Amino acid sequence: MGRIDPFNKKCFDTVLRRHTLGGNPLQIMKCSPLLLLPILFSLASALASDRINVAEDEATHSAYNGGWQSGKNSGTGFGAWLFQTAGGVGTDSHSGFFVANSTEQKDLENAGTNGKALGMFANGVDFEVACAFRSFDAPLVVGDSFSLMMECGEFVKKFETDDSRPGVIGFSLRTGAAADAWDDFQTGARLQFGFYQGEGNFQVYDGEADHDTGVPFTAGGVSVTVTLVTPDTYNLEITTLDTKETKKLEGRKLAGDAGAPIDSFAIYNQDGESSDAYFNGFQVSRVATSIPR
Q1: Scanning 91, 105, 198, 286, which has its CA 20 to 30 A from the CA of 78?
Q2: Are residues 178 and 251 in the same domain?
Q3: DSSP alpha helices (H): ranges in 112-210?
Q4: Is residue 40 helix, strand or coil?
Q5: Is residue 266 in a domain?
Q6: What is the domain range of residue 204?
Q7: Same domain as 151, residue 32
Q8: Rounded mean pLDDT of 259-276?
Q9: What SS3 class is residue 30?
């Protein structure tokens, strides 16, 4: 919102209040036209640039007080979580989900809200996976921004006999809401973002040939924002949570069928081994075309 001179603030507040209640502020106020011009300009700028959250969730919500389970719903604008896991059978194969807090999980440094985040572990002698699926109440529309925070450490073997396949920790945005198996994270995927074992930078797999974001992996975590520019292109913004450095990749092409909607997302820890994965701050924001009456 544009900065408002304190002398005009009372008039501005009245204009804003009258706008939200209906009516013509020019007829019902006694501010001079010269004062009203900058006020109304500021109001128009605010209406054009403000964003509202149409979906949000974070680990501090009371729904997670008893843990993070499949079928649980929290926040607004999302469907319930659906879990899938993979791995071997026995005491040396582990995958699952939990509510992390920085008091117990010392490697959770920046992605938590009041020290809390949603955690996923996947370690053992097999290729273990923890994958959580979630739908949006309505598909993303042009102008919407989906964002989250994610944090993890390097890929370090927990067992010498671990599966040799490379791991990945990240998320995908998808058409449809398939969640019948862990590898449905890629079913209908329009983009996949994450830290891929063997890569020094975060990678994004979409409709472009170049997948390297140019952002070096950091154990301090990142905030990632995907803004839909057209039904088939998007802007990507990556901010490191520890150093607050931001990289923007604009006008990238989405994968998948042209015009296919983005209906859901998935987050996953695929064989992270010694590194748990932490996610938090899920949000969809939208340009507010007007202040609701």
Answers
A1: 105
A2: yes
A3: none
A4: helix
A5: yes
A6: 52-287
A7: no
A8: 94
A9: coil
Q: Report d(CA 193, CA 18) in Å as an integer.
A: 45
Mean pLDDT (the chain, rounded): 85
Distances (CA, A) of 73 to 84, 112, 137: 16, 19, 12
CB within 8 Å of 162: residues ≥ 6 apart = 123, 124, 125, 271, 273
Distance CA 269, CA 95 (A): 9
137 pLDDT higher than 90: yes
Q: Among 98, 264, 260, 103, which Cα is nearest to 172's?
A: 264
Q: Can you give the length of the chain in residues?
A: 293
Q: In what order do the strands lie in the sheet with 189-196?
A: 82-86, 129-135, 264-270, 168-174, 189-196, 201-205, 212-216
Cα four-point dihedral sign 206, 83, 98, 159: negative
Identify whether residues 33 and 97 lie together within a single domain.
no
User: pLDDT tens digits for 152-211?
Assistant: 999 777 666 666 788 899 999 999 999 999 999 999 999 999 999 999 999 999 999 999
Same domain, 111 and 254: yes
Residues 105 and 25 in one domain: no
Distance CA 161, CA 81 (A): 32
The dihedral over CA atoms of 74, 76, 77, 82, expressed in degrees to the nearest 10, equals: 0
**For 6-42, how does the pLDDT look when each residue is reduced to its tens digit (9 = 90+)?**
334 444 444 334 343 444 444 434 545 555 455 444 4
Average pLDDT over residues 116-125: 93
Q: Are residues 204 and 92 in the same domain?
A: yes
pLDDT-derived band of residue 121, with 50, 70 and 90 as boundaries? very high
